[in-house]
């Protein structure tokens, strides 16, 4: 009879151990699934950050090209101004009537040039500001990407 009791106890212990092993296996499977989900989420975040960095780089390149164009336009305008000033000086030695008309034309052209120069300088300043902001954003995104990569490893 004590042998029967011992057998029953052993049978209960085997059942308890089997249930415990099943529970541990289920917990391990759940943990594995969570690790896969977290890794997938991290990879998606990294892809998104890389796409943002590429977009910022594209924006930065576009703004830098606009800045170069604005600089070239400013240089052309300055060359035109020098030409107009030379023409104005040359005309100042000619006849009074021609001088008056030419000076008026030169002054009007000079005023228009100064207005264009101010506009170009404002645009150049705006582009430099946007480029600087993009550089900061790009740096922040690079930092986030590095952090995500470090976390994933």
TrEMBL record:
Residues 1-64, 121-140 are annotated as: Disordered. It comes from the Eukaryota. Residues 16-30 have a biased composition (Low complexity). Coiled coil: none annotated. Residues 130-140 have a biased composition (Polar residues). Residues 31-40, 53-64 have a biased composition (Basic and acidic residues). This is Uncharacterized protein. It comes from Haptolina ericina.
């Amino acid at each position: 009879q004590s042998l029967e009791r011992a057998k029953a106890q052993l049978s209960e212990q085997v059942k308890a151990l089997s249930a415990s092993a099943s529970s541990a296996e289920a917990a391990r499977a759940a943990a594995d699934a969570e690790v896969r989900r977290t890794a997938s989420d991290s990879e998606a975040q990294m892809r998104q950050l890389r796409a943002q960095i590429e977009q910022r780089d594209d924006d930065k390149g576009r703004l830098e090209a606009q800045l170069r164009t604005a600089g070239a336009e400013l240089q052309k305008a300055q060359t035109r101004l020098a030409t107009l000033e030379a023409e104005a000086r040359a005309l100042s030695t000619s006849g009074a009537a021609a001088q008056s008309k030419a000076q008026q034309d030169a002054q009007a052209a000079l005023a228009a040039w100064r207005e264009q120069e101010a506009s170009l300088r404002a645009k150049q300043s705006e582009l430099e500001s946007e480029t600087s902001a993009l550089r900061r954003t790009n740096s922040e995104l690079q930092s986030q990407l590095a952090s995500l990569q470090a976390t994933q490893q």
